[in-house]
Amino acid sequence: MPASPRRATLATVAASAGVSVATVSKVLNGRSDVSPATRSLVQSLLRQHEYVAPTPRREPAGLATVEVQFDSYLNAYSTEIIQGAVAAGAEAGVGIVVSMRRGADRTTAWARELVASGRRALIAVTSELTSGQPAALSRAGLPLVLIDPLNLPRTRVTSIGSTNFAGGLAATHHLLALGHRRVAYVGGPATAACNQARLHGYRAAMEADGAAVLPGYVRSGHFRYRDGVVGGAAVLDLPRAPTAIFAGSDEMAIGIMEAARARGLRIPEDLSIVGFDDTQIAQVTSPPLTTVRQPLREMGGVALRTALRLAAGEKIDSHHVELATELVVRGSTAPVPATRA
Questions:
Q1: DSSP type of residue 152
Q2: Which residue spans adopt a coiled-coil conformation according to this UniProt entry (predicted)?
Q3: Alpha-carbon gap, residue 261 to 255, rounded angstroms
Q4: What is the pTM of this model?
Q5: Which residues of 84-113 are buried (b: 16+ CB within 10 A; e: fewer)?
Q6: Domain range enclosing 244
Q7: pLDDT per residue as tens digits for the range 18-27
Q8: The domain that contains 104 carries what CATH number?
Q9: What φ, ψ does residue 71 adopt, rounded to 5°?
Protein backbone atom coordinates (compact mmCIF):
# COMPACT_ATOMS: atom_id res chain seq x y z
CA MET A 1 0.00 0.00 0.00
CA PRO A 2 1.24 3.56 -0.67
CA ALA A 3 2.78 5.33 2.32
CA SER A 4 0.57 7.80 4.17
CA PRO A 5 1.27 11.41 3.14
CA ARG A 6 3.65 13.19 5.54
CA ARG A 7 2.08 15.93 7.64
CA ALA A 8 3.43 19.41 6.89
CA THR A 9 5.15 21.10 9.85
CA LEU A 10 5.84 24.73 10.80
CA ALA A 11 9.45 24.14 9.77
CA THR A 12 8.31 23.02 6.29
CA VAL A 13 6.27 26.18 5.79
CA ALA A 14 9.00 28.39 7.28
CA ALA A 15 11.63 26.95 4.90
CA SER A 16 9.38 27.53 1.88
CA ALA A 17 8.71 31.12 2.94
CA GLY A 18 12.32 31.88 3.90
CA VAL A 19 11.30 33.01 7.38
CA SER A 20 11.71 31.67 10.90
CA VAL A 21 9.43 29.13 12.55
CA ALA A 22 8.59 31.82 15.10
CA THR A 23 7.28 34.06 12.30
CA VAL A 24 5.02 31.31 10.97
CA SER A 25 3.75 30.71 14.50
CA LYS A 26 2.96 34.41 14.87
CA VAL A 27 0.89 34.34 11.65
CA LEU A 28 -1.03 31.27 12.87
CA ASN A 29 -1.75 32.98 16.20
CA GLY A 30 -2.89 36.25 14.58
CA ARG A 31 -0.04 38.34 16.01
CA SER A 32 0.19 41.89 14.66
CA ASP A 33 4.01 42.16 14.58
CA VAL A 34 4.32 40.62 11.09
CA SER A 35 4.40 42.67 7.89
CA PRO A 36 1.35 42.36 5.58
CA ALA A 37 3.50 40.96 2.75
CA THR A 38 5.04 38.27 4.95
CA ARG A 39 1.66 37.43 6.48
CA SER A 40 0.13 36.99 3.00
CA LEU A 41 3.03 34.78 1.85
CA VAL A 42 2.91 32.55 4.93
CA GLN A 43 -0.88 32.16 4.77
CA SER A 44 -0.62 31.19 1.10
CA LEU A 45 2.04 28.57 1.86
CA LEU A 46 0.04 27.19 4.80
CA ARG A 47 -2.82 26.51 2.37
CA GLN A 48 -0.47 25.17 -0.31
CA HIS A 49 1.15 22.71 2.13
CA GLU A 50 -2.27 21.83 3.58
CA TYR A 51 -0.94 22.49 7.06
CA VAL A 52 -3.05 21.13 9.92
CA ALA A 53 -2.24 22.06 13.50
CA PRO A 54 -1.34 18.99 15.62
CA THR A 55 -4.19 17.57 17.70
CA PRO A 56 -3.68 18.37 21.39
CA ARG A 57 -2.56 15.37 23.41
CA ARG A 58 -4.83 16.06 26.34
CA GLU A 59 -8.59 15.64 26.02
CA PRO A 60 -10.51 18.86 25.25
CA ALA A 61 -12.99 20.05 27.83
CA GLY A 62 -16.45 18.52 27.52
CA LEU A 63 -17.65 15.30 25.93
CA ALA A 64 -15.49 13.82 23.14
CA THR A 65 -17.45 13.43 19.89
CA VAL A 66 -17.46 11.21 16.80
CA GLU A 67 -19.17 12.46 13.65
CA VAL A 68 -21.50 10.17 11.69
CA GLN A 69 -21.86 11.61 8.21
CA PHE A 70 -24.36 10.78 5.45
CA ASP A 71 -24.41 11.65 1.76
CA SER A 72 -28.16 11.99 1.40
CA TYR A 73 -31.42 12.27 3.30
CA LEU A 74 -31.98 10.25 6.46
CA ASN A 75 -34.36 7.31 6.27
CA ALA A 76 -35.22 4.12 8.18
CA TYR A 77 -31.82 2.61 7.26
CA SER A 78 -29.99 5.70 8.57
CA THR A 79 -31.99 5.69 11.81
CA GLU A 80 -30.93 2.13 12.62
CA ILE A 81 -27.25 2.97 12.02
CA ILE A 82 -27.50 6.09 14.20
CA GLN A 83 -29.20 4.22 17.05
CA GLY A 84 -26.43 1.61 17.06
CA ALA A 85 -23.71 4.27 17.08
CA VAL A 86 -25.44 6.31 19.81
CA ALA A 87 -25.84 3.25 22.06
CA ALA A 88 -22.17 2.31 21.64
CA GLY A 89 -21.15 5.94 22.19
CA ALA A 90 -23.11 6.09 25.44
CA GLU A 91 -21.26 3.01 26.70
CA ALA A 92 -17.91 4.59 25.79
CA GLY A 93 -18.77 8.05 27.10
CA VAL A 94 -18.58 9.58 23.62
CA GLY A 95 -21.11 11.89 21.97
CA ILE A 96 -22.41 11.41 18.43
CA VAL A 97 -22.84 14.27 15.94
CA VAL A 98 -24.91 13.50 12.82
CA SER A 99 -24.24 15.52 9.67
CA MET A 100 -24.88 15.48 5.95
CA ARG A 101 -22.32 16.44 3.31
CA ARG A 102 -22.03 15.66 -0.38
CA GLY A 103 -18.85 13.99 -1.63
CA ALA A 104 -17.71 16.94 -3.74
CA ASP A 105 -17.69 19.20 -0.65
CA ARG A 106 -15.15 17.08 1.21
CA THR A 107 -11.76 18.78 0.94
CA THR A 108 -8.71 19.48 3.08
CA ALA A 109 -10.57 22.42 4.63
CA TRP A 110 -13.35 20.00 5.61
CA ALA A 111 -10.84 17.75 7.38
CA ARG A 112 -9.41 20.76 9.24
CA GLU A 113 -12.90 21.83 10.31
CA LEU A 114 -13.60 18.39 11.78
CA VAL A 115 -10.37 18.47 13.79
CA ALA A 116 -11.00 22.04 14.92
CA SER A 117 -14.49 20.99 16.09
CA GLY A 118 -12.93 18.41 18.41
CA ARG A 119 -14.02 15.30 16.51
CA ARG A 120 -12.18 12.18 17.58
CA ALA A 121 -13.09 10.21 14.42
CA LEU A 122 -15.41 10.19 11.40
CA ILE A 123 -17.88 7.48 10.38
CA ALA A 124 -19.08 7.93 6.78
CA VAL A 125 -22.24 6.01 5.82
CA THR A 126 -23.08 4.97 2.22
CA SER A 127 -20.61 7.57 1.00
CA GLU A 128 -18.71 7.95 -2.24
CA LEU A 129 -15.18 9.19 -1.55
CA THR A 130 -12.27 10.13 -3.78
CA SER A 131 -8.81 8.81 -2.87
CA GLY A 132 -7.81 12.35 -1.85
CA GLN A 133 -10.46 12.62 0.86
CA PRO A 134 -9.18 9.78 3.09
CA ALA A 135 -5.69 11.22 2.51
CA ALA A 136 -6.86 14.63 3.77
CA LEU A 137 -8.29 13.00 6.90
CA SER A 138 -5.05 11.06 7.40
CA ARG A 139 -3.01 14.25 7.22
CA ALA A 140 -5.33 15.78 9.79
CA GLY A 141 -4.83 12.76 12.06
CA LEU A 142 -8.54 11.86 12.01
CA PRO A 143 -9.50 8.15 11.79
CA LEU A 144 -12.10 7.21 9.15
CA VAL A 145 -14.50 4.24 9.20
CA LEU A 146 -16.89 3.57 6.30
CA ILE A 147 -20.27 1.79 6.51
CA ASP A 148 -21.63 0.28 3.26
CA PRO A 149 -19.41 2.52 1.07
CA LEU A 150 -20.61 3.18 -2.47
CA ASN A 151 -17.01 2.83 -3.58
CA LEU A 152 -13.71 1.82 -1.99
CA PRO A 153 -10.89 4.34 -2.58
CA ARG A 154 -7.54 2.99 -3.75
CA THR A 155 -5.95 3.87 -0.42
CA ARG A 156 -6.59 1.40 2.40
CA VAL A 157 -9.60 2.34 4.50
CA THR A 158 -11.49 0.62 7.30
CA SER A 159 -15.05 -0.43 6.42
CA ILE A 160 -17.99 -2.17 8.05
CA GLY A 161 -20.65 -4.05 6.08
CA SER A 162 -22.70 -7.22 6.03
CA THR A 163 -22.65 -10.48 4.10
CA ASN A 164 -24.41 -8.95 1.10
CA PHE A 165 -23.58 -11.82 -1.26
CA ALA A 166 -24.97 -14.42 1.16
CA GLY A 167 -28.06 -12.24 1.65
CA GLY A 168 -28.69 -11.99 -2.08
CA LEU A 169 -28.19 -15.73 -2.41
CA ALA A 170 -30.66 -16.50 0.42
CA ALA A 171 -33.33 -14.11 -0.90
CA THR A 172 -33.21 -15.59 -4.39
CA HIS A 173 -33.08 -19.20 -3.20
CA HIS A 174 -36.21 -18.51 -1.13
CA LEU A 175 -38.10 -17.34 -4.21
CA LEU A 176 -36.83 -20.23 -6.31
CA ALA A 177 -37.87 -22.71 -3.60
CA LEU A 178 -41.41 -21.31 -3.86
CA GLY A 179 -41.43 -22.32 -7.52
CA HIS A 180 -40.66 -18.93 -9.09
CA ARG A 181 -38.55 -19.12 -12.23
CA ARG A 182 -39.01 -15.59 -13.54
CA VAL A 183 -37.25 -13.62 -10.80
CA ALA A 184 -36.03 -10.05 -11.34
CA TYR A 185 -33.58 -7.91 -9.35
CA VAL A 186 -34.21 -4.19 -8.78
CA GLY A 187 -31.25 -2.75 -6.90
CA GLY A 188 -29.16 0.27 -6.06
CA PRO A 189 -26.30 2.04 -7.86
CA ALA A 190 -24.53 -0.31 -10.28
CA THR A 191 -21.10 0.75 -8.95
CA ALA A 192 -21.96 0.38 -5.23
CA ALA A 193 -19.98 -2.47 -3.65
CA CYS A 194 -22.92 -3.65 -1.51
CA ASN A 195 -25.26 -3.65 -4.52
CA GLN A 196 -22.78 -5.59 -6.64
CA ALA A 197 -22.50 -8.25 -3.93
CA ARG A 198 -26.30 -8.59 -3.66
CA LEU A 199 -26.60 -8.80 -7.44
CA HIS A 200 -23.86 -11.47 -7.61
CA GLY A 201 -25.71 -13.48 -4.96
CA TYR A 202 -28.91 -13.23 -7.01
CA ARG A 203 -27.14 -14.32 -10.21
CA ALA A 204 -25.35 -17.19 -8.44
CA ALA A 205 -28.65 -18.57 -7.08
CA MET A 206 -30.34 -18.27 -10.47
CA GLU A 207 -27.48 -20.02 -12.23
CA ALA A 208 -27.26 -22.78 -9.61
CA ASP A 209 -30.98 -23.49 -10.08
CA GLY A 210 -30.81 -23.35 -13.87
CA ALA A 211 -33.15 -20.33 -14.00
CA ALA A 212 -32.46 -17.83 -16.75
CA VAL A 213 -32.04 -14.12 -16.02
CA LEU A 214 -34.19 -12.74 -18.83
CA PRO A 215 -33.35 -9.48 -20.66
CA GLY A 216 -34.49 -6.47 -18.64
CA TYR A 217 -34.70 -8.42 -15.37
CA VAL A 218 -31.87 -6.47 -13.69
CA ARG A 219 -32.45 -2.79 -12.91
CA SER A 220 -30.31 -0.30 -11.00
CA GLY A 221 -31.12 3.02 -9.36
CA HIS A 222 -30.80 4.33 -5.81
CA PHE A 223 -31.94 2.52 -2.68
CA ARG A 224 -35.05 4.71 -2.49
CA TYR A 225 -38.82 4.35 -2.72
CA ARG A 226 -39.12 6.30 -5.97
CA ASP A 227 -36.49 4.14 -7.68
CA GLY A 228 -38.44 1.08 -6.58
CA VAL A 229 -41.59 2.47 -8.21
CA VAL A 230 -39.74 3.21 -11.46
CA GLY A 231 -37.71 -0.01 -11.53
CA GLY A 232 -40.71 -2.13 -10.55
CA ALA A 233 -42.82 -0.58 -13.29
CA ALA A 234 -40.09 -1.27 -15.86
CA VAL A 235 -39.84 -5.00 -15.11
CA LEU A 236 -43.58 -5.51 -14.60
CA ASP A 237 -44.27 -4.00 -18.03
CA LEU A 238 -41.96 -6.46 -19.80
CA PRO A 239 -43.64 -8.91 -22.25
CA ARG A 240 -42.65 -11.76 -19.90
CA ALA A 241 -43.11 -10.09 -16.53
CA PRO A 242 -41.52 -11.66 -13.45
CA THR A 243 -43.57 -13.52 -10.88
CA ALA A 244 -41.14 -12.47 -8.14
CA ILE A 245 -38.80 -9.53 -7.52
CA PHE A 246 -35.81 -9.26 -5.20
CA ALA A 247 -35.32 -5.61 -4.19
CA GLY A 248 -32.00 -4.14 -3.08
CA SER A 249 -33.56 -2.38 -0.07
CA ASP A 250 -36.80 -2.28 1.91
CA GLU A 251 -37.59 1.19 0.53
CA MET A 252 -37.26 -0.08 -3.02
CA ALA A 253 -39.44 -3.09 -2.18
CA ILE A 254 -42.24 -0.77 -0.98
CA GLY A 255 -41.92 1.19 -4.22
CA ILE A 256 -42.24 -2.04 -6.19
CA MET A 257 -45.37 -2.90 -4.18
CA GLU A 258 -46.90 0.39 -5.28
CA ALA A 259 -45.99 -0.24 -8.92
CA ALA A 260 -47.62 -3.70 -8.66
CA ARG A 261 -50.82 -2.34 -7.13
CA ALA A 262 -51.05 0.31 -9.85
CA ARG A 263 -51.15 -2.59 -12.33
CA GLY A 264 -53.83 -4.51 -10.46
CA LEU A 265 -51.43 -7.13 -9.08
CA ARG A 266 -51.96 -8.59 -5.61
CA ILE A 267 -49.09 -9.34 -3.24
CA PRO A 268 -48.25 -12.17 -2.76
CA GLU A 269 -51.05 -13.83 -4.79
CA ASP A 270 -49.80 -12.43 -8.13
CA LEU A 271 -46.30 -11.20 -7.26
CA SER A 272 -43.81 -12.12 -4.53
CA ILE A 273 -41.38 -9.48 -3.25
CA VAL A 274 -38.27 -9.73 -1.04
CA GLY A 275 -36.51 -6.66 0.36
CA PHE A 276 -33.15 -6.07 2.02
CA ASP A 277 -32.31 -4.39 5.40
CA ASP A 278 -35.25 -5.37 7.68
CA THR A 279 -35.90 -1.82 8.84
CA GLN A 280 -39.03 -0.99 10.83
CA ILE A 281 -41.01 -0.27 7.66
CA ALA A 282 -40.70 -3.93 6.65
CA GLN A 283 -43.01 -4.90 9.51
CA VAL A 284 -45.73 -2.30 8.87
CA THR A 285 -46.25 -2.77 5.13
CA SER A 286 -49.35 -4.57 3.88
CA PRO A 287 -48.57 -7.42 3.69
CA PRO A 288 -45.49 -7.43 5.98
CA LEU A 289 -42.31 -7.65 3.91
CA THR A 290 -40.16 -10.73 3.56
CA THR A 291 -36.63 -9.33 3.67
CA VAL A 292 -32.97 -9.98 4.37
CA ARG A 293 -32.07 -8.70 7.80
CA GLN A 294 -28.95 -6.57 7.77
CA PRO A 295 -27.74 -6.00 11.37
CA LEU A 296 -27.74 -2.22 11.00
CA ARG A 297 -27.63 -1.30 14.69
CA GLU A 298 -24.77 -3.71 15.25
CA MET A 299 -22.96 -2.20 12.24
CA GLY A 300 -23.29 1.28 13.76
CA GLY A 301 -21.96 0.01 17.09
CA VAL A 302 -19.03 -1.87 15.56
CA ALA A 303 -18.13 1.19 13.47
CA LEU A 304 -18.12 3.43 16.57
CA ARG A 305 -15.97 1.06 18.62
CA THR A 306 -13.57 0.56 15.69
CA ALA A 307 -13.25 4.32 15.18
CA LEU A 308 -12.40 4.82 18.87
CA ARG A 309 -9.76 2.08 18.74
CA LEU A 310 -8.15 3.75 15.72
CA ALA A 311 -8.27 7.12 17.49
CA ALA A 312 -6.48 5.58 20.47
CA GLY A 313 -3.73 4.29 18.17
CA GLU A 314 -4.66 0.64 18.61
CA LYS A 315 -4.18 -1.97 15.91
CA ILE A 316 -7.31 -3.64 14.55
CA ASP A 317 -7.59 -7.24 13.40
CA SER A 318 -9.17 -6.50 10.00
CA HIS A 319 -9.74 -3.44 7.86
CA HIS A 320 -13.04 -4.86 6.60
CA VAL A 321 -15.68 -6.45 8.83
CA GLU A 322 -18.81 -8.22 7.53
CA LEU A 323 -21.66 -9.04 9.90
CA ALA A 324 -24.03 -11.91 9.13
CA THR A 325 -27.33 -11.38 7.30
CA GLU A 326 -30.48 -13.44 7.85
CA LEU A 327 -33.60 -14.08 5.76
CA VAL A 328 -36.81 -13.05 7.57
CA VAL A 329 -39.92 -14.59 5.95
CA ARG A 330 -43.18 -12.66 6.26
CA GLY A 331 -46.28 -12.23 4.13
CA SER A 332 -45.00 -10.74 0.86
CA THR A 333 -43.85 -14.06 -0.64
CA ALA A 334 -45.86 -17.16 -1.62
CA PRO A 335 -45.66 -20.06 -4.08
CA VAL A 336 -45.91 -19.05 -7.72
CA PRO A 337 -49.56 -19.00 -8.86
CA ALA A 338 -50.37 -21.72 -11.38
CA THR A 339 -51.80 -19.13 -13.79
CA ARG A 340 -48.45 -17.29 -13.97
CA ALA A 341 -46.01 -20.22 -13.71
A1: -
A2: none
A3: 10
A4: 0.78
A5: bbbbbbeeeebbbebeeeeeeebebebbbe
A6: 164-294
A7: 888 788 777 7
A8: 3.40.50.2300
A9: -85, -30
